Amino acid sequence: MSLEHPRVSIAIPAFNEAEVLPELLERVGVLLDSLPGGPHELVIVDDGSTDGTPDILRRAATLDHRIVVVALARNFGHQPALTAALDHVTGDVAVIMDADLQDAPEVIPTMLQHYREGYDVVYAQRASRPEGLILRACYFLFYRMLAALAEVQLPLDSGDFALLSRRVVLHLRRMPEHHRYLRGLRTWVGFRQLGLPVARQPRVSGSSKYGLLRLVKLATDGLFAFSTIPLRVASVIGAGAITACSLFAVYAIYAKLVLDRSPKGFTALFVAVTFLAGVQLLFLGVIGEYLGRVYEEVKGRPLYVVARLTRAGQPQSPPNPEGAGVGGLASRAADVGETTGT
Q1: Helix axes 166-173, 182-189, angle to 10 degrees
Q2: What pLDDT, in 10s, does the model give residues 50-95?
Q3: Phi, psi at residue 315, to the nearest 5°?
Q4: How many Å apart are CA 189 and CA 185, to the nearest integer?
Q5: pLDDT for 102-135, tens place per residue?
Q6: Secondary element (H or E) of residue 42
Q7: Which residues share a beta bridge with 11?
């Protein structure tokens, strides 16, 4: 491995991005041509696309042998597709980015410069965003809430766009969780990390595949994967309710025995019972979220299934399911040896 001129793998998940792919392939191709060293590669995961994305990728792979196409058997979701891309990279460094070109590939040389300075992770920190005011406010609040609650110090305003050294990639491959929040996992790994302020660009074409429900799911994955505070909040509220009820019971006894009157307040009692019942149901749901995630992990299913792999312009057989690792690929003996190196 050359620290000065590392082999670069660019890992991109794509789902119904036929409108964007021509410009993406052109800009990334120009970038790879400009980088010293090599051979570099572009690993694109087709996450069960139903438009012209598979055909565009197949043609591109036959014209440029640096392009590796991993076609998944169905749509498994953004984070599993990113995991599949990282499982297939072979370079000294991997750069993960989305296909919509909101994260400009022209930033990658700057990331590589910081890698040469000794950083294992260089992540893009969004200095500005093109979204509307309400969505920007939601992102702002979410990142700060998650940073406050997480047991690992997560960086603010950072997405998936990042450069990862080979050893970070190898450690990420060993993490089996299904509800993945990769930007948190890369922070958890450790090593030297640096945030690079980058202005997020508008989509080149098409529409975002991350609707409101997917954004909420990603947010909850990040929260429940890196914090147990929601469970502790239930204990705090329960202790507060017990204290309040005990104080009221003492007052009721005092009023009956000393003041010779019984406290009245049917409405207050009704509100209190309803409130506490709602709190109980809410935290049963929180416990259910954690329990459901444990259930998903216990089943031990792979994160994704590869239907077709195209490397060096030629279709190849997908990995043997009987030897599949946590991500969906057969374990690599060489990788196991590399995880203890640099």
Answers
A1: 110
A2: 888 898 998 888 888 889 999 998 988 888 899 999 999 988 899 9
A3: -65, 140
A4: 6
A5: 888 888 999 898 998 889 989 888 766 666 677 6
A6: strand 41-46
A7: 43, 96
CA distance 314 to 304: 22
pTM of the full structure: 0.69
Domain ranges of the chain: 8-227+301-338, 229-299
Q: CB neighbours of 329 closer than 8 A, spacing ≥ 6?
A: 87, 88, 306, 319
Provide the token pair at 218: 């990603």
The burial of 215, by beta-carbon neighbours within 10 Å (0-12 exposed, 13-18 middle, 19 or more buried), is given as: middle
- Please, where are the H alpha helices in the chain? 21-34, 53-63, 78-88, 108-116, 133-149, 166-173, 182-189, 212-226, 229-257, 266-299, 333-338
Q: Dihedral of CA 266/267/272/275: which sign? A: positive
Sign, Cα dihedral of 215, 218, 87, 291? negative
Q: Which two tokens stand for residue 160?
A: 């998936």
Looking at domain 8-227+301-338, its CATH class is: alpha beta
Which amino acid is located at 136 in the chain?
R
